[in-house]
Amino acid sequence: MKSNNRRTFLKKSILGTMGAVVASSACAQTSTPRDAEGPFYPLTPQKDKDADLTKVAGKVGTAKGTIIEIHGQVLDTNSNPVEDATIDLWQANSFGKYHHPHDNSDAPVDEHFQSWAIIQSGKAGKFRFKTIMPGAYPYQARLEDQRTPHIHMKIGKHGYEPVLTQMYFPDQEQNKTDGLLQRKTKEQQAMMTAQNTGQQNVLLYNIFLEKI
Ligand SMILES: [Fe+2]
Questions:
Q1: Which pLDDT score, from 0 to 100, does residue 146 have?
Q2: Residues near 9 by Cβ (< 8 Å), separated by ≥ 6?
Q3: Above pLDDT 90, what percent of the chain?
Q4: Ligand 1 centroid vs 1 CA: distance in angstroms?
Q5: C-alpha 40 – ligand 1 centre gap (Å)
Q6: Distance from residue 149's CA to the centre of ligand 1 (Å)
Q7: What is the pLDDT of residues 60-104, one digit of tens each?
Q8: How far does residue 25's CA lie from ligand 1's centre (Å)?
Q9: What's the mean per-residue pLDDT of the chain?
């Protein structure tokens, strides 16, 4: 074999092997499971919807609670990055209270918590946001029936099926009794739960979208 042909052959072999690896993970992958929207999608307009939910523009002070960062990628079901996907996310504050007129719980409002963000995936489908660990809160006023901490998300991009879901946290005792999370299979729960990274308070959460 001439050296040029040999190089082409080797290149093709390597690409072929890589293709097989991608294909095998693609077979196992589905879109991120859907979950209930819940009653507290934000109604009150707010200008500040950036990726740092621990500060509110124009106010001095920081949200109460444990500051965390969520890093991840938006991918398609073949594990290709999806750039410019929109991630619309909202969550309760550290006391378990939503910034929403219909949240009648006695938990305190935190005026320094942004509570809502609309961000986009960037290069290689990557995104990140900074927030606080959401508090658990009573579900339908049944105090004995708390929702485990979670972040609501709507993810969309033209040409992909939109996903409305909730992101859960690892190592939460209340995950075991949460009515919505426990309706899911173990595989679905794993896809919906962020992973520890080894770096304190930094979690990894990848989102999978299906092409239309
Ligand atoms: Fe919720």
A1: 82
A2: 1
A3: 78
A4: 63
A5: 7
A6: 8
A7: 999 999 999 999 999 999 999 999 999 999 999 999 999 999 998
A8: 31
A9: 87
pTM of the entire structure? 0.85
What distance in angstroms lies between residue 98's CA and the mean position of ligand 1's atoms?
A: 8
Q: Which two structure tokens, joined as six digits, stand for 133? A: 């660990």
Q: How far apart are CA 83 and CA 67, in angstroms?
A: 26
Residue whose C-alpha is closest to residue 88's, from 32, 152, 13, 174 = 152
Six-digit token pair at 167? Answer: 């992101």
